[in-house]
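4.2 Preliminary Data

To establish feasibility before requesting continued support, the project team ran the inverse folding procedure on a target of 215 residues. The structure was first converted into the token representation described in Section 3, and no sequence information of any kind was made available to the design step. The complete token record follows.
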């Protein structure tokens, strides 16, 4: 299962780099503008107070833009760090709300999920900790979502929810085939030691994952 999670991380590296490129180029561009203005500092004596104030305002705005870009980059890298750390630890205590937020944030590196899917995330406001083998949980959840994306067309609807400690993944457009059912069962097999898993396929598709000993 650990290898499957690492394979999933590797498969989305290209999408992650693509997502990082926009805020990174923004940060670099704004930094270059500030540098260009700083090169004018040698001519400060010839600048009027109004011109100095204009430079100060522009630098302030560009610095704010740099901070916003850095926050966006941090938000993209945080799920990667989260997944890598918990994958290496294996059997850990996981807060399910945080887990789903991180997992779906990382899935934004999959262009099918980001651009071709109407996705909804509904999370219970309450905290819910479970002791679970993280690689098995991650491989099951991301594997099920990958199967949905591969089995349906663009414009699909995907709803991911957490209610009373139960994770639900639903797609009304998906119809289970024998092949997709076997794949989902294989993906969830290792998680079966820690969770009760139920698949509904009429109408559409929904899977519920209830990790035992939720607190």
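Position-by-position output of the design step:
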């Amino acid at each position: 299962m650990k290898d499957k999670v690492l394979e999933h991380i590797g498969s989305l590296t290209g999408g992650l780099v693509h997502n990082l490129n926009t805020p990174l180029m923004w940060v670099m561009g704004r930094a270059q503008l500030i540098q260009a203005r700083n090169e004018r500092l040698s001519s400060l004596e010839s600048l009027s107070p109004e011109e100095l104030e204009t430079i100060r305002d522009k630098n302030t705005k560009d610095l704010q833009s740099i901070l916003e870009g850095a926050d966006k980059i941090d938000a993209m890298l945080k799920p990667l760090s989260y997944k890598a750390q918990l994958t290496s630890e294996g059997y850990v205590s996981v807060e399910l709300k945080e887990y789903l937020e991180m997992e779906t944030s990382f899935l934004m590196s999959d262009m099918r999920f980001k651009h071709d899917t109407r996705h909804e995330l509904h999370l219970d406001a309450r905290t819910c900790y479970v002791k679970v083998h993280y690689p098995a949980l991650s491989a099951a959840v991301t594997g099920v979502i990958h199967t949905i994306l591969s089995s349906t067309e663009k414009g699909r609807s995907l709803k991911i929810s957490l209610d009373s400690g139960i994770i639900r993944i639903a797609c009304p457009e998906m119809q289970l085939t024998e092949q997709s059912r076997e794949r989902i069962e294989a993906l969830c097999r290792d998680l079966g030691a820690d969770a009760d898993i139920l698949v509904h396929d009429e109408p559409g598709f929904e899977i519920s994952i209830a990790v035992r000993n939720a607190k």
